[in-house]
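[job 4471] stage=fold_predict status=RUNNING
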Amino acid sequence: MTLALGDTAPDFEAESTEGKIRFHDWIGDSWAVLFSHPKSFTPVCTTELGYMASIKPEFDRRGVKIIGLSVDPTDDQNRWSGDIEETQGTAPNYPIISDTDFNVSKLYGMLPASVSGDPTARTPADNQTVRNVFVIGPDKKVKLILVYPMSTGRNFDEVLRVIDSLQLTASHKVSTPAQWKQGEDVIISGSVSNDQAREIFGEWKEPKPYIRIVPQPN
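[job 4471] inference complete, writing structure tokens
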């Protein structure tokens, strides 16, 4: 299965470090970030889980729930949590899915349907495609998909920046330009006519007829 932006995020039931969850019920009316890891006790992922824990208040402030995923058993993830706290300063403060039957990894297109067997016998290289970030909206639609190589740690500040853009553009008829950050000018959506734009925004800067720049709406 290959997921695309705008698809409904597959629902599933799975064990996690905080008990069994039904994914869509767990999301509820919130936004959500699902980020996956090829193996417990791997160095790059150790830094990622620790950093994600340290900035969880930023996700909370935006109404975003975060959840990790590993194909290893919950016991391994609980033991790994101690290492993460020791080396990164913050232990995971969010659930981590134990995808030992590879069901979630297959549903989200991170492992092929043919994968089976003992998850503990697999190496990080076997699971190297399980290095994804999915941002999911309250409507349960996939809003963002990021896929990283094993050698490159993920930039979760960028995930926050994209969520700011997604939440803004879901409520207002605007788009965000390159390198945009919260509070900076935005672009009136191309689907909005000039007459409509005058009603909504009043005036705007127009370096070209197709680039209409306004302050970020509140």
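[job 4471] summary: The radius of gyration is 20 Å.
[job 4471] exit 0
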